[in-house]
Amino acid sequence: MLGQTGAAQVGSVTVKTTNHTGLSIEHWADRALERIIYVAPDSQSIMKDQAEAYRDQIRKVLTHFIAQAIKSDRTTLYNLFLQQGHRDMAEILRKL
Amino acid sequence: MAFSGDYMCDSFKLELLTAEHNFAAAGDSFKIALYDDTSTLDNTTTVYTPTGELAATGNYTTTGQALTNIDPAWGTVKALCDFVDEVFSNATFSAMGALIYNDTHASDAAVIVLDFVTLQTATAGDFTIQFPAAADATAIIRIA
């Protein structure tokens, strides 16, 4: 159709910063969720409720498995430090 | 204030029409560079520039970090571009804005300018750029 309007647009990013720590498991779970499920603000109410309930379930699953992945990685690092003779650093990691 | 808003670079719009950018996951390599408040990036920016870029301190590397492309997709009425969130780890620096540019392009062609609005600071922490949801109303690059 002639006369159809179009445009190239740019979105806005959000910056998250931390001091002396990294971002939380919950932060990353929420970011992953935004990639997996997008609920449009103008969705029908019943659809929106179902999508949000599903999103809450997925959030719990993601949070659990991200935490497990971190624990697994710490186990790997713990053993690496131990094998290299850094027992003190290994213990710091284990206690986190 | 040196930054005056988010911009799609004018030169980039023209380069789209001459097939100079490929945002597919296996396409071109795009980088994000961070800038302080002395920078004057805007829609007239054509290529990556070190002027106003953060110094290579506090775990920032000049020229910035490579982004991870996500295959462009069709929304409801718009074509959408997206990237994976980018984390500058163990960062100790402040930035006022950023430039995304095409590192594969021979001239390091500028794509978009991002204004953080306020000075963002991390101290021995994560400095994370969160890209908006890849939806018609929000995606980082949208073609209607």
Tell me about this structure.
The complex is a heterodimer of chains A (96) and B (144). With 96 residues, chain A is mainly alpha-helical. Chain A has one domain. Chain A has helices spanning 25-36, 45-83, 87-95, and strands spanning 8-10, 14-17. Chain B has 144 residues and is mainly beta. Chain B has one domain (7-68, 86-132). In chain B, the strands form 2 sheets. In chain B, strands 1-7-6-2-3 form a 5-stranded antiparallel β-sheet. In chain B, strands 4-5-8 form a 3-stranded antiparallel β-sheet, with no helix packed on it. In chain B, a hairpin with a 7-residue loop joins β6 and β7. Classes of the chains: A mainly alpha (96), B mainly beta (144). At the A-B interface, β1 and β2 of A face β1, β6, β7 and β8 of B.
List the topology elements.
The complex is a heterodimer of chains A (96) and B (144).
Chain A: E1 8-10, E2 14-17, H1 25-36, H2 45-83, H3 87-95
Chain B: E1 7-8, H1 10-16, E2 30-35, E3 65-66, E4 69-74, E5 79-83, E6 86-102, E7 110-130, E8 141-143
Antiparallel strand pairs in B: 1-7, 2-3, 2-6, 4-5, 5-8, 6-7
| Poorly predicted spans of chain A | none
Q: Which value, in Å, is the CA radius of gyration of chain A? A: 21 Å
Low-confidence stretches of chain B: none
**Helix segment count of chain A?**
3
Outline of chain A: elongated
Instruction: Work out the largest interface and the residue count of each chain.
Output: A-B, 23 and 37 residues
Indicate the structural class of chain A: mainly alpha
Number of helical elements of chain B: 1
Give the helices and strands of chain A as they follow along the chain. EEHHH
End-to-end gap of chain B: 31 Å
Total domains of chain B: 1
- Helix percentage of chain A: 55-70%
